[in-house]
Amino acid sequence: MTDSIATVTDLAERARVASRTLALLTRADKDAALLALADAVDAATDDVVAANAEDLQRGREGGMATGLLDRLTLDADRVAAVADALRDLAGLPDPLGEVVRGSTLANGLQIRQVRVPMGVVGMIYEARPNVTVDAAGLGLKSGNAMILRGGSAAASTNRALVAALRSALTAHGLPADAVQLLEGDHDAVKALMTARGLVDLLIPRGGAGLIQAVVTESTVPVIETGVGNCHVYVDAAADPDKALAIVLNAKTHRPSVCNAAESLLVHRSVAADVLPDVLRDLAGAGVVLHGDDATREHAPDGVVVEPATDEDFDTEYLALEMSVAVVDDLDAALAHVRRHGSGHTEAIVTEDRAAARRWTAEVDAAAVLVNASTRFTDGGEFGFGAEIGISTQKLHARGPMALPELTTTKWVVEGDGQIRG
Amino acid sequence: MTDSIATVTDLAERARVASRTLALLTRADKDAALLALADAVDAATDDVVAANAEDLQRGREGGMATGLLDRLTLDADRVAAVADALRDLAGLPDPLGEVVRGSTLANGLQIRQVRVPMGVVGMIYEARPNVTVDAAGLGLKSGNAMILRGGSAAASTNRALVAALRSALTAHGLPADAVQLLEGDHDAVKALMTARGLVDLLIPRGGAGLIQAVVTESTVPVIETGVGNCHVYVDAAADPDKALAIVLNAKTHRPSVCNAAESLLVHRSVAADVLPDVLRDLAGAGVVLHGDDATREHAPDGVVVEPATDEDFDTEYLALEMSVAVVDDLDAALAHVRRHGSGHTEAIVTEDRAAARRWTAEVDAAAVLVNASTRFTDGGEFGFGAEIGISTQKLHARGPMALPELTTTKWVVEGDGQIRG
């Protein structure tokens, strides 16, 4: 543990020094550097793909699941896409320097609250090497030095990517320590999580287990991302066509991500009208269904709906699987969401203004939707142009996090000799 | 510990229920309630003063220091002031409902980010019973249910105050559980600090030891407040009159608070001009001085400047005591602040635009000041009308925290059947 603390302290101190240079760069400086980084990633394609082949082979030998192997894979096309994402970042506005608030006080002091970088940001994530490049780019654009801890299954790929990024930074006259990779065992991660004062912010990104561990063990401030047990509630006043389209899209468009719907609630008064079609279409799309007794009564012939347990309603399936319940009214739907929701995204389908108004006011979640698919809670969809994760906590950032969420502010106060009387 | 966890769980669940009512109140509802609470505090003056007398007697018997006894004291005048602070809160704008950002997406979805309450907020503070009422009022206005843990030395006073507040809430048709007092030993505090998911935010307010303990032991998100090792740097291009006035004010106006200056840095080229007057006036105001060798050479006859140790430069005296160093240039001043500052408030005195620009850009602190006393970093001075503390962390809030800093946001998305393609 002592060695790990020394390693992290050294990394963090070098990151701090680099961060001081990053904080003073102009937007033009940073955008030029991002384009240079993109070119460097392109130029390193062969090295990266070869390194990735090593990781993939180790993964296959270790019995890694197909889905994880897919996320780990970086072929030439994916490397090109990762480089293009850096170019896209160059096109986004600089979050730094924005004056958030400001005024002139009665005594003539001019005060303004200005967006500045966090400083040193750590990221802990799984074996998804595209995140390595994304995080490096987001860090550079937001003026933060990044300490990256990717899943060890992607170690070779991450090393190749970070080597390419660091040489490009040096060649561009910028500090290589703007992007550093933290290697080592769990002690290294533990040292990062407890490097309070050295690291300004830690962002875990991955499954519920990883996030829970980081949140519990860290003394560094953390932004929790990503667990989404999202509901679609079909209200008594729902348009049945919209309900059908939204439920299908929310569940099946991309079931493996956090903004996919996991649970369907239907008002009892429309259950007989809505459920048969919805259940048939979900089953037709390959969705495994778990329903309460009332739901199962409305299953059309040939559609299997397993009995739902309380655990089903708490489960983020991240797969073609869904829990379904019939509720007595809007109050029961709100109570169900309070009990089982994870505060990510909750949608109502209704044509009733009063029901929509109650839903948006009373549901406590990062995003509350009316007549829209849960899949829209996304930095790209919201027009942010980049996303480092979706925060499900209330402190600092809530919902899709992009460049401004990677900044803090400082108060700049300019006077002419003012003292307090 | 099991009992403490059960107690805190019960408190937090009742707070959650209350918070749902608070979140839906209009500004008019809340302001009327704040005025009713103020009247209730006034009406309870005799009870509160009597309870406070018990606390004071226990304090005196236990050998409590004079300064702490003063902070603990609530006489009739102070009770009236505390009630008036609630009336002032009624005059402030409602932070909730503000649309922070919003747009209509290409697909017609209308998105807006709206300010909403945190939900359940815990406060851990020392034996200062005025904080009990302030926190209750700030919580009500910002729509948050508060769990208050005041120093045990103020237990009787806090009980009397919270009883008055809770009866007034009930009489006003609001849930009494909007304000709850957490009693019990350290296990109770530990249970509060680890009530993740039940408590949305924890704010420690007090000395460095208390804050450090809360920050280290909590799994609930925390906002760190208050340690201020603040510097005044007198630049080569300083106006000597402004320098003298600002240093004196920053050190002596109210030495016991976090925005008081603790350390003075003087550019070598003006040390001979500036230091003799400054040191004489500081000493004349009763300030104990600790200086480096160069500083001591400029001490006028009869002014004692003790040799400063490295520890002196790290010390937040919170008293009439100051460390003083001569620095070679602006870079050396910046390096000194990086090494010894606590990220609270850092002031430069200069008439040189370039030096001022470098100071405000390069110093990493909640507030960076030019030609003004450090004492201005304050919610009241900034025009916020209320302050729950001064954050020295970068996540969520930095600098003086008022009503908006006690809120989070949610994204409200309104559509007409949109699905993702």
UniProtKB/TrEMBL annotation, chains A, B:
<dbReference type="InterPro" id="IPR015590">
    <property type="entry name" value="Aldehyde_DH_dom"/>
</dbReference>
<keyword id="KW-0641">Proline biosynthesis</keyword>
<dbReference type="GO" id="GO:0005737">
    <property type="term" value="C:cytoplasm"/>
</dbReference>
<dbReference type="InterPro" id="IPR000965">
    <property type="entry name" value="GPR_dom"/>
</dbReference>
<comment type="similarity">
    <text>Belongs to the gamma-glutamyl phosphate reductase family.</text>
</comment>
<dbReference type="GO" id="GO:0004350">
    <property type="term" value="F:glutamate-5-semialdehyde dehydrogenase activity"/>
</dbReference>
<dbReference type="InterPro" id="IPR016163">
    <property type="entry name" value="Ald_DH_C"/>
</dbReference>
<keyword id="KW-0521">NADP</keyword>
<dbReference type="Pfam" id="PF00171">
    <property type="entry name" value="Aldedh"/>
</dbReference>
<comment type="pathway">
    <text>Amino-acid biosynthesis; L-proline biosynthesis; L-glutamate 5-semialdehyde from L-glutamate: step 2/2.</text>
</comment>
<keyword id="KW-0560">Oxidoreductase</keyword>
<dbReference type="GO" id="GO:0055129">
    <property type="term" value="P:L-proline biosynthetic process"/>
</dbReference>
<keyword id="KW-0028">Amino-acid biosynthesis</keyword>
<keyword id="KW-0963">Cytoplasm</keyword>
<dbReference type="InterPro" id="IPR016162">
    <property type="entry name" value="Ald_DH_N"/>
</dbReference>
<dbReference type="GO" id="GO:0050661">
    <property type="term" value="F:NADP binding"/>
</dbReference>
<feature type="domain" description="Aldehyde dehydrogenase">
    <location>
        <begin position="7"/>
        <end position="280"/>
    </location>
</feature>
<dbReference type="InterPro" id="IPR016161">
    <property type="entry name" value="Ald_DH/histidinol_DH"/>
</dbReference>
<comment type="function">
    <text>Catalyzes the NADPH-dependent reduction of L-glutamate 5-phosphate into L-glutamate 5-semialdehyde and phosphate. The product spontaneously undergoes cyclization to form 1-pyrroline-5-carboxylate.</text>
</comment>
<dbReference type="InterPro" id="IPR012134">
    <property type="entry name" value="Glu-5-SA_DH"/>
</dbReference>
<protein>
    <recommendedName>
        <fullName>Gamma-glutamyl phosphate reductase</fullName>
        <ecNumber>1.2.1.41</ecNumber>
    </recommendedName>
</protein>
